[in-house]
Write a structure and sequence with these properties.
The protein is an alpha/beta fold. Strands 1, 5, 6, 7, 8, 9, 10, 11 and 12 form a 9-stranded mixed beta sheet that branches. A 3-stranded antiparallel beta sheet has the order 2-4-3, with no helix packed on it. The protein is globular. It starts with 16 loop residues before the first strand and ends in a 13-residue tail after the last helix.
């Protein structure tokens, strides 16, 4: 087990990179991965439901929303796995409580991704080992030995300064032979590396085309870091806005296109480098099965997770479908959680970080790892 204080000073390399995409707002699993053969689904959603004729067939029972069309080839080629009825144990129907519970990995002060970075024996660390792409550091990265939060390469700077300022500041930190000095050295190394990447004319490989917007731009920069062998081991990236109480179709369609086209471009751009990269897509909860009077859906429980990687058991939907009749629902019309998100993440964390990682990452939870790898 790593020491409690671990500064990032290892060589620039990475054996594995885990990219965590959080769909904040409670993504509607039932309109993303659609049970088109369940008549109760169509009765519950007469207006906003996705018809069998419009959906993209997956396994004979479930089908993909046509706005997620870019994911369909990934499922067919065996690099995308879908976990239906996934979620956590928080039943509050509160975005904030459910997100905190999921990102902390239970009733723990730190975040599960932060604990993974701190204690996984196979991780090497580096000045760019953990990155959150956004305005603030997410809860999942609390407790990480070191992490950077930035909106983009262009924004990761201390601003305009005289040419002599940075060398003088670096010398001040270099003189500190303690934790402050180590942290300062990491910060300057990270800034140097980001500056190098910022000045490059990066062109995605294999004619990959990322969607416009922060999400596509974020994935593009993650691909650049992976291919630069910058030591990237974990990334947190959000795609916000999934709270579809009103006009669900209008709200969700552009988000689904961003998600699908972004992931497809990322997969295409990385090519063989995807062998050592896994993408986990998750949301704090799903939605109720019944459409509401505003042509939307309200907060539910069971949701969906997507796992993308070259070595996973792709082309497969994990589910324990019992139907959508009242006797199979929970609460006020919620889909049950059949797969805890920890069990979905567990095989990835073990494979990337070491088999003795899970107890530290998800304490006091009886892990039953999903059979995610072939």
């Amino acid at each position: 087990m790593a020491t409690a204080t671990a500064f990032i000073t290892q060589p620039d390399t990475q054996d594995h990179t885990l990219v965590v995409v959080f769909l904040r707002g409670g993504a509607d699993a039932l309109n993303m991965v659609v049970p088109v053969e369940d008549d109760d689904y169509h009765r519950a959603r007469p207006t906003i439901g996705i018809s069998k004729n419009n959906a993209l067939a997956l396994d004979g029972f479930f089908a993909l929303n046509p706005e997620l069309e870019a994911l369909h080839p990934l499922y067919k080629e065996g690099t995308l796995s879908i976990i239906h009825q996934a979620g956590g144990e928080n039943e509050s129907h509160s975005h904030f409580e459910a997100q905190d519970s999921m990102e902390q990995g239970g009733n723990v002060a730190s975040g599960w991704l932060g604990r993974y970075l701190r204690y996984a024996p196979n991780l090497k660390g580096g000045p760019l080992s953990a990155i959150a792409l956004g305005k603030t550091r997410p809860t999942c990265l609390w407790g990480a030995p070191s992490s950077l939060t930035m909106e983009s390469f262009e924004n990761f700077t201390i601003g305009e300064s005289p040419p002599t300022f940075m060398p003088a500041l670096e010398q001040l930190y270099h003189a500190e032979k303690n934790a402050l000095g180590a942290a300062g050295a990491d910060a300057f190394t990270a800034m140097d590396k980001i500056q190098q990447l910022r000045t490059q004319d990066y062109r995605p490989s294999h004619e990959a085309l990322y969607p416009e917007g922060d999400f596509g731009s974020g994935l593009r920069q993650v691909a650049q870091l992976v291919k630069a062998r910058a030591g990237l081991e974990a990334v947190s990236l959000d795609l916000n806005g999934w709270d579809s109480h009103f006009a669900a179709t209008t709200l969700m369609n552009p988000l689904m296109r961003q998600l699908a086209e972004g992931l497809a471009a990322f997969r295409k751009d990385l090519g063989a480098d995807m062998d050592k990269v896994t993408v986990a897509v998750m949301s704090e909860f799903g939605r109720r099965i019944y459409q509401n009077v505003s042509f939307g859906t309200d907060h539910g429980q069971g949701g969906v997770m997507f796992m993308l990687g070259n070595n996973i058991r792709g082309g497969h939907i994990f589910h324990n479908w019992k139907g959508l009749t009242e006797d199979h629902l929970v609460g006020p019309g919620d889909l049950s959680v059949e797969f805890n998100y920890r069990d979905v993440l567990a095989p990835v964390l073990s494979r990337h970080g070491g088999t003795n990682t899970l107890e530290a990452v998800f304490p006091e939870f009886p892990i039953a790892p999903l059979d995610l790898y072939t």
